[in-house]
Amino acid sequence: MKKEIPYKIYLEESEMPKAWLNLRAFMDKKPAPLLDGETLKPITLEKLSNVFCEELARQELDDESKFIEIPEEVRNFYKMYRPAPLVRAYCLEKALDTPAKIYYKFEGNNTSGSHKLNSAIAQAYYAKKQGLKGVTTETGAGQWGTALSMACSYFGLDCKVFMVKCSYEQKPFRREVMRTYGADVTPSPSMTTEVGKKINEEFPGTTGSLGCAISEAVEAATSRDGYRYVLGSVLNQVLLHQSVIGLETKTALDKYGVKADIIIGCAGGGSNLGGLIAPFMVEKMQGVRDYQIIAVEPSSCPTLTRGVYAYDYCDTGKVCPLAKMYTLGSGYIPAASHAGGLRYHGMTTTLSELKDQGLMEARSVLQTEVFKTAQTFARVEGILPAPESAHAIKVAVDEALKCKETGEEKTIVFGLTGTGYFDMMSYQKFNDGVMKDYVPTDEEIEKAIAKLPKF
Ligand SMILES: *Cc1c(COP(=O)(O)O)cnc(C)c1O
For labelling, which of 218, 232, 240, 351 has a CA lying 20 to 30 Å from the CA of 267? Predict the structure, then answer.
């Protein structure tokens, strides 16, 4: 007899993963290497270690080790908020009147409110182990900055955060959470770095972008002794750390004999999705089981659906290495959308390559539609989702409604990356009926893409 599946599947502490899964190591055709912006040759560990902590730089370049052990200190921290529950969305299924079974992996059970803490704690740990004084970073919507502030205070590290200006203004409470945890928060572009000054000159009045903030944070780290730069998305190391999401999800499903058909996640830089799909993609590549995997992005920043697959800079200031990825051009500054965490011009190299190989698909959705779904979800499932996460809910709902038409009983799993308690200005706009959609024209996109580096 099949075990009764609980409303929320909580794993035992002992069932938490002891190693991260390095998805790239399982790929026959690997993502293209990161290139050094100066030499245009694959970047060396030595060069990368000037910017990143050494162990993290090593992880960044490692496409051979299939599993990398999670240090005990990091696992002990994980225990404070993990394992994260895998929830059966019975009430949503009922509201949609669908034969589909819907599950979501909920990553909002920690103060920072998102999955970003999974990588923040790992990165802070390696920085501390290297004997650094502190780290610098950027934050868009504020989730990464908050997570990193928590992680740095845990390990006693200094934390300097460059926060995209529009978020700094829209989300004063996020800023205060970071300051409460001891971080120093500066709106970006600022006048405290050379690159910030340059961007302010070139685009007066700009509300900033993740790309700009990254450039500033890198400069702040490399111009100080005892500091390194850390990044909360896009990088291989971040996907690696986020594989705890997918590993736990797989263990929970396997425990109850549930087989997923469709796996959905929102994609900004691609870290939560890369982490969620990791063990499932391995099975797909090995021919063990086929899964339909869908990345969801905002129509206002349609990297995977309308960008090109090419080498580009990871940041507006062109100080980071070049990556071969789906991109809208590092000069593309997306419209100020209400899902700040999805406002990035590029996409992590692993997901870009998987998309290019046809192993993953992508869809873009309008933010008003996303908020409509978020509202439905909040009303029936109780959780008030982050606008980013609601992108995944939107496509999960679309797929569940398709099942209603066809009568198929598919099992849908999506990543609920966080809560939206700090996004109430956005919810207010939606509730007041004044939220607008923004879809860039082909011309705008072509213009940004035309500026891609050529070599
Ligand atoms: C940052 C963030 C995202 C997007 O980042 P990825 O690296 O693409 O996962 C999604 N959801 C939430 C709640 C976030 O904070």
Answer: 218
